[in-house]
Amino acid sequence: MINGAKAVVKCLEKEQVPVIFGYPGAAICPFYDELSESGIRHILVRQEQNAGHAASGYARMTGRPGVCVVTSGPGATNLITALATAYMDSIPLIAITGQVSSDLLGRDVFQEVDITGAAEPFTKHSYLLKDAADIPKVFKEAFYIASTGRPGPVLIDLPVDIQKQMIDFQYPHQVSIRGYNPNVKGHVIQIKRVLQAIEEAKRPVICVGGGAFASDAAGQIHAFSEQFQIPVVSTMMGISIMNTDDPLYYGMLGMHGNKCANRAIHDSDLLIIIGARVGDRAVSTPNILAKRTRVVHIDIDPAEIGKNMHTSIPLVGDAATVLEQLCEKELQTDTEEWIELLDELRAQLPRELPEREGYVNPKNFLRLLSEKTGENAVFVADVGQNQIWSANNLMIKNSRFLTTGGMGTMGYSVPAAVGAKLACPDRQVVAVCGDGSFQMQLCELATICQHGVPVKIVVMTNTKLGMVRELQYQGYRANYVGVDLSGSPDFMKLTDAYGIAHRRISGMDEAGQAIDEMLNAEGPYLLECIVDPMESSL
Amino acid sequence: MKHTISVLVENHAGVLSRISGLFSRRGFNIDSLAVGVTEDPTISRITIVVDGNDHTVEQVEKQLNKLIDVLKVRTIPSDELLKRELVLIKIEATPNERREIMDIVQILGARIIDLTVTTLTIEVTEKTENIERLLALLSEYSVKEIARTGVIALQKGSDTIKGNGKQIL
Fold first, then answer.
1. Are A367 and A389 contacting, i.e. CB atoms less than 8 angstroms apart?
2. Is residue A452 domain-resident?
3. Is A36 inside any structural domain?
4. Chain A residue numbers touching B68 (CB-CB < 8 A)
5. What is the pLDDT of residues B122-168, one digit of tens each?
6. Distance CA A213, CA A319 (A)
7. How far is B147 from chain A (nearest CA, A)?
8. What are the helix (H) ranges across A121-258?
9. Does the domain spanning B82-152 belong to CATH 3.30.70.1150?
10. What is the complex's ipTM, to 2 decimals?
11. What does each C-alpha distance from A311 to A99, A233, B129 come to in angstroms?
12. What pLDDT digit, counting tens, does each position of B78-88 carry?
């Protein structure tokens, strides 16, 4: 017989979880007590939301659910933003929350919140445990649900008395959930229809989204586009599925995308959407577009198909599997002219951008940064102008680009970079944020120091909430309200206080050397770039 | 247009709140919702009447299917719909009015289940349209209180909801 807390630890061991991210409190103490006996590494974050983001970064780099553990009440509510972020971006998480004793539930005792109720809209599924005997089954199911089908966060609420209840532990080998059975293989008839559409198309284009990562389908997408000679554009979540210099890749589409990618979508006669939601930032007027072009939508979540855009050929299934099915067929396609046209458009996209005295041009800087990191890096962009600059200017070469494209949560980059670095210690992990988003997460500098996580942080300082400033400039008569960030600390002194290496640059002439210094530093490093406050996103 | 959707769900705590939360969150309008246990005690059946176009109903079905606790979703075609609703109506009635009300009740297939000196309580189990007709007639009198169950429904013929799989596409 072991207690429930020990059972939870054993479940995590059975699921081969090497590291968890958390913040303890009274209602989760039995779990922490047992955790000390285990080989599982615990990363203490400095605010619960960041436990969720770090687990997200970890999950995205390993393809396995990231685990975060917090206490009841405020610990649990602080986690909600991270859960919502993971839910919007379809990232597999297991969130374990302590809860008050089950016999006290509903009495509003100290640090009690109905977290399963509160998080219901942002979780793929949730459990409130009332009997420790259910722990093995619930954990087995939770890992299965989080990581299969369309991935997402699963919440397990663990009352403190349940953690102390004694049970016989046996971990189930299999799960059987009668209400959950995601379709992986594409329907044969739909596959045939898609192939026929490809054969008939003169101007086909593939739009790839974050689902391609969830399905680990980078290789299949590459093979598919090459075999049928179909150009590829990506949503923000789909960036780094294709290398930037891939001849068939034309960059990011949408409100902040490039002209070439948007033209490709607009002028296409066949649009093949793979693992993307057709969100408003990616396609602003989907149903006008759908009148002009034939739409094939491949997604493992049937509810995404037809939700935002009328679809001619729906195809439910796992992207990698479906693309393999499609590639089985040899087809004669004639897209040469179309590709030539897009190549011309791509060649017209601006490359080097003009410099301004006293400022770092963020776009040129990010190009240089990605040149210098070379292959195999991990870039984590935060939210705001820094995100758009990163999305459009980082030259991806077998590197990975992480950001929160769906939820757009400021303060994501540093904790997510911590998770990513722990997932792949041999890769260079660089977080890019603005001075606004950096201040939402700067408490995590302590996490980096405490656990010796050598992430590199680039802060684009423009003393403004740049994205909102731009919005107010364009849509609100340049009536700047609440976007001035003066009063911010000197980030050099601040990082000094943490003992983190740092440098500030205010011109591109120093950029190369500063980037080298950052990348060569053994420990964490913060590089602050002074950016023109009037710099635009695009 | 009204659509009647039958949903089989796991019979445990929290399922109803997941479903009702989904409707409000996604902006679907519920006309009525009725829940009860089925022939299998581990499964409940929820009957939901939604107002919306075909696209809305397709989304409702798909979103419901995403819930882990949902086992089966089926929109019953309107020409194959066997639907009933139970309504209890308490009416203030003087002895003079009583006779007239009893006539209406009898003609429309309802019945009186309680009687006091000043009130009578009517029970009716019928299609929504017939219930509306009865209520319209009774509105001439002083209706004190109404309780309605919401629509429950089965499909005509020998087919059951378990006939088809969970996946819609």
1. no
2. yes
3. yes
4. 124-125, 145, 177, 179-180
5. 999 999 999 999 999 999 999 999 999 999 999 999 888 886 544 43
6. 9
7. 29
8. 135-147, 160-164, 188-200, 211-214, 218-227
9. yes
10. 0.88
11. 44, 18, 36
12. 999 999 999 99
